[in-house]
Design brief:
It contains 15 helices and 19 strands. By secondary structure, the chain is an alpha/beta fold. α2 (about 30-40) packs across α3 (about 45-50), α8 (about 170-180) crosses α9 and α11 crosses α12.
Length: about 400
């Protein structure tokens, strides 16, 4: 990493290095402006071309049907999002790491695309045996562990609609979202870890289900090993359940406009609102952005530090990177546990090449000081991203 030059604070823009631009998909502002103009002037044609980034079962007739106030993307097309994120990469990249996971205590697990497919299929079969059908809503209330994206992809495989609830929310907040979406199944864990402390998720889930009669079963991942209350006939251990099922589960053929997930707003300005995302338009946009925003290459290691409980985590830990065949890093804990160099240690350990974090996190890194980067090789990072809010110039310049 080069030394920060404070004089660039006075510059209107920082051009990327020539070496970067020469290899990028969009190599200049002139090229970007031409693409932007094309997309504005001929949106149906442009997004019809981008639709080729995903694999269709039935090709759509047109990219966009726009009848105010409704828009339908890729009408007439059929596909399966789980297939696009896992199966289509197996032939060429089956043994490539899909998910590199690190726990707060340093435990690490790696899952290839072949292994990810098998786990997704096992849990998809388990859900079907529990009576979950296409169109049913499944609530997911979990820590940042591998079973979280596995559950999401399993829902997408069978056409169930997942509703991920941030693991930091209370049982009351969880109940509100389950009740509103009329969820049939809840997937959670006995607990999670945050700064070395156990977060009792199962306890909050039990409290929530006291007022949620639509939930028939609760599937629980054993993460912490802490004792938990258990309701026979309703509660099921994840590991005992999935071991019973086959690693083969044919993906459902789903309409382009089939609901993929519901994600609720935070509720800070009123009652939480469930925002429905449909399959094809969302997947095309996520995959497109991996190409044109993050300039993804086959050998990149992509790390988005967001929580999957928010839409950035959905899009850039799960659907965008996996649809693109990327290797993703996923971390369970806090950025300053046990020390403030935790993120840099992870970036070094996994040879991260694309690092995507929030403006708030960047300001924390800046406040903590660059001494926390010392001793960690982060030279492989070639692209930085920031999300969540506009970043202030001083923080961006420090980050860069």
């Amino acid at each position: 990493m080069s030394e920060f030059d404070p004089t660039i604070l006075n510059e209107a823009a920082i051009p990327p290095p020539e070496e970067f631009s020469s290899r990028a998909r969009v190599s200049s502002m002139t090229e970007y402006e031409a693409l932007h103009r094309y997309a504005l002037e001929k949106p149906e044609e442009y997004w019809g071309e981008q639709g080729q980034l995903v694999e269709w079962i039935t090709a759509p007739g047109k990219a966009l049907e726009w009848k105010l106030p409704h828009a339908k993307w890729y009408a007439g097309g059929t596909l399966n999002v789980s297939y696009n994120c896992v199966d289509r990469h197996i032939e060429k990249h089956g043994n490539k790491p899909a998910l590199l996971w690190e726990a707060e205590d340093g435990q690490a697990l790696e899952f290839t695309y072949c292994e990810l497919r098998d786990l997704v299929c096992r849990f998809a079969n388990a859900m079907k045996d529990l009576g979950v059908k296409k169109g049913d809503v499944v609530a997911i209330y979990m820590p940042m562990i591998p079973e979280l994206p596995i559950a999401m992809l399993a829902c997408a495989r069978i056409g169930a609609v997942h509703s991920v609830v941030f693991g930091g929310f209370s049982g009351t907040a969880l109940a509100d979202r389950i009740h509103d979406a009329k969820c049939k199944l809840l997937i959670t864990a006995d607990g999670g870890y945050r700064r070395g402390r156990v977060i009792p998720l199962k306890e909050s889930a039990d409290e929530a289900l006291k007022s949620c009669p639509t939930v028939e079963h609760m599937v629980v991942v054993r993460r912490t090993g802490e004792p938990v209350a258990w309701q026979q006939g309703r509660d099921l251990w994840w590991h005992e359940l999935v071991d019973q099922y086959s690693e083969t589960c044919e993906p459902e053929v789903l309409d382009a406009e089939h609901p993929l997930f519901i994600l609720y707003t935070s509720g800070t300005t009123g009652k939480p609102k469930g925002v429905l995302h449909t399959s094809a338009g969302y997947l095309v946009q996520c995959t497109w952005s991996m190409q044109h925003v993050f300039d993804l290459r086959d050998d990149d290691i992509f790390w988005c530090t967001a929580d999957i409980g928010w839409v950035t985590g959905h899009s850039y830990i799960v659907y965008g990177p996996l649809s693109s065949g990327a290797s993703i890093v996923m971390y369970e804990g806090a950025p300053d546990h046990p020390k403030r160099d935790r993120f840099w240690r992870i970036a070094d350990r996994y040879n991260v090449t694309i690092f995507y974090s929030s403006a708030t996190a960047v300001r924390s890194f800046m406040a903590w000081g660059k001494q926390w980067l010392e001793g960690h090789d982060i030279s492989k990072i070639r692209l930085l991203g920031t999300v969540g809010e506009p970043i202030n110039p001083a923080a961006w310049k420090w980050y860069y």
